[in-house]
Amino acid sequence: MSKLMLNAKNLLAAAAGAGILLAGATTAQATESGRAAAQSGQDKPTIVLLHGAYEDGSSWSGVTNRLQHDGYNVLAPAVPLRGIASDTSYLRAVLATVSGPKVLVGHSYGGALVSELADTSGVKSLVYVAAFIPQAGETLGALNSQFPGSELGPDTTNVISYPGGVDLALKPETAGPVLAEDIPAREGAVILAAQRPVAAAAFSEPVEKTAPAALPKYAVIPTGDHAIAPAAERFMATRAGATQIEIPDASHLVAVSQPTAVTQVIERAAR
């Protein structure tokens, strides 16, 4: 065999060996990087996002995307919207599948569920986003009528009677400005087209629990809310001892219109 061929073989062998070493180093680095990322995720609490009446988990999409980008595990379960006791019972079973520390976040009606679930093992803080923060024995309907400013009512709501009960749904032609004044009309129309009706009894059903006073609480208050009056949100937040963060001129669907601002509050609560 010629010296030229031997040299070529030697070069190929050396290159292959270097490739193996490089691949091994790259694999080790990737594995270590993956372990570090996993460890970082394990160090952070799981963020549980509870949507409100007429909504589903997609209302949290912008917030979920940002939280996941920042390394948080996120769960945005479908709330049945059948009533406070019924929904709480179901969500307790959902939370039982989540190990480690948790931050509970509730929008609107979801705030009442956050208060009921606050005693769940591992919950480290609560975030209320344009939400009810009721105390034991109160109803959401009474709280919302206590302060002027809510524009939800017969003009914006359809009543759906069926053999199993009575549901409420929003009228797309009138509810858009009430819920989503700062969202493009076409986007608001898509949200209303996919809305999920809520049991009417949910607003007259007394809440069973007050969130523990010692648990850190944060309240996002959109000052342009026409579904729950900002004055009512401030009253409930002050009474609960929550840190209040106001977002000027934001609508009731503030998590949709201002997901970055809402995410920042949630991550503050997580820390």
Automatic annotation (TrEMBL):
It holds the Pfam family Abhydrolase_6. The keyword Oxidoreductase does not apply. Residues 1-30 form the signal peptide. Residues 47-263 form the AB hydrolase-1 domain. InterPro entries: AB_hydrolase_1, AB_hydrolase_fold, Sec-Metab_Biosynth_Hydrolase. It comes from Kribbella jejuensis. Gene3D superfamilies: alpha/beta hydrolase. GO terms for molecular function: catalytic activity. This is Pimeloyl-ACP methyl ester carboxylesterase. Keywords: Signal. It comes from the Bacteria.
